[in-house]
Specification:
The protein has five helices and ten strands; from the N terminus they run H-E-E-E-E-H-E-H-E-H-E-E-E-E-H. The chain has about 180 residues and is of the alpha+beta class. The strands form two sheets. An eight-stranded mixed β-sheet has the order 1-10-9-4-5-6-2-3. The radius of gyration is 17 Å and the shape is globular. The protein starts with a helix and ends with a helix. About 35% of the residues are buried.
């Protein structure tokens, strides 16, 4: 009986499988350039679910794993994938040129877009989404890696930040959550 009462205390909104951050006071603005040289904001993708991930192309593990998972999510969505836009925001604009980004993101799915900006624009975008990143010098001169947050954000078709997806969680639960967002009125 107690379980039934507790179950009735939930909100009336959709039940997501990933972390619901609806109403968060961040993740509202993004102003960067895509790998084709086109300036982009979140408003450009209204009407679509946006899946947003911060990383870098020289990442040895987290970034390629996440993008491969997101490519599988797009396949699993079938025709609904046409209503989803995956955005990969580089935290390494020093090495991630438009040409490098174009080759990298489209290797996972030709619909993916890579976004970049100068150091100031990158910091602003990361701060807006509460993403940590930091350059780590390597063992030889000029060699470095980037430490960075490994989560993914999901923005609904109305442009509202709705979900946080932890690293390694971009699978069937994300497919379910995206379909839930696409079905909202």
């Amino acid at each position: 009986m107690l379980a039934g009462l507790l179950a009735g205390c939930g909100g009336s909104g959709p039940k997501f499988r990933n972390t619901d951050i609806t109403g968060a006071g961040y993740g509202e603005k993004l102003s960067l350039t895509d790998q084709n040289g086109k300036p982009r904001t979140l408003a450009d993708f209204r009407g679509k679910v946006v899946v947003l991930f911060f990383g870098y192309t020289h990442c040895p593990d987290v970034c390629p794993t996440t993008l491969a998972e997101l490519a599988q999510v797009m396949k699993s969505l079938g025709p609904d994938a046409d209503r989803v836009q995956v955005l990969f925001v580089t935290v390494d604009p020093e090495r991630d040129t438009p040409a490098v980004l174009a080759k990298y993101v489209t290797a996972f799915d030709p619909r993916f877009l890579g976004l970049y900006g100068d150091a100031t624009a990158t910091r602003r975008a990361a701060k807006e989404f509460k993403v940590f990143y930091e350059k780590r010098e390597g063992s030889s001169p000029g060699e470095y890696s980037m430490d960075h947050s490994a989560g993914t954000y999901v923005i609904d078709p109305k442009g509202r930040l709705r979900l946080f997806v932890g690293y390694g969680k971009a699978g069937p639960d994300l497919v379910y959550d995206i379909r839930t967002l696409l079905s909202e009125k």
